[in-house]
Amino acid sequence: MAGSRRGTKLLWRWRSNPLRRxxxxxxxWVVLAVWAVIVIGGTLAGFLTSQAAQEVFADQRAExxxxxxxxxxxxxxxxxxxxxxxxxxxxxxxxxAPDGTRxxxxxxxxxxxxxxxxxxxxxDGTGALSSEPPTPDxxxxxxxxxxxAAALALSGLAYGVGRAGRWWLDRRRVEQWGREWTLVGPRxxxxxT
Length: 193
What we know:
- It is a single chain.
- By secondary structure, this protein is of the alpha+beta class.
- 54% of the residues lie in helices and 17% in strands.
- It has three helices and five strands; from the N terminus they run H-H-E-E-E-E-E-H.
- It has a five-stranded antiparallel β-sheet with strand order 3-2-1-4-5.
- The longest helix is centred in the last third of the chain and has 53 residues, at 136-188.
- The radius of gyration is 32 Å and the shape is elongated.
- The chain crosses the membrane at residues 25-48, 139-162.
């Protein structure tokens, strides 16, 4: 018995009721739509975002290659401080691109190395310097975080739109109650003797 009472309380806007207003039915549809967008849309947005991120990371792993490079100058040991890059410093390097041309650029390498030391850098398909692609485990974690963020963003947007819709419906109800009270109120305004 208690379960059926609870169910009827939750679904009161859907039942036939002489006190139910058009705004109550509209609010029930708004609440249902918001929950559908949060559950179905949030799940779909999270899944699609996660899959897209996984594809981007897989493309990065397929395109980027480790390439040997040579330091062109000594790399000082970095100073430790609140804005330091750890034990790495910016250094000028030279490497050979896939088309055979020699290129130079700047990248972060471990501090304390001497000029002429060989280091490994990552390049993209054109031979330009790039960052190391994420490992499959790192990519899965990052894709999961991006998918979760997308699901939460869509859910937050749907919730905000739903709250705005319910606020607008509440304003309409209050205005209707005010109009009805101006009609009914004077009938109640009598003095008891």
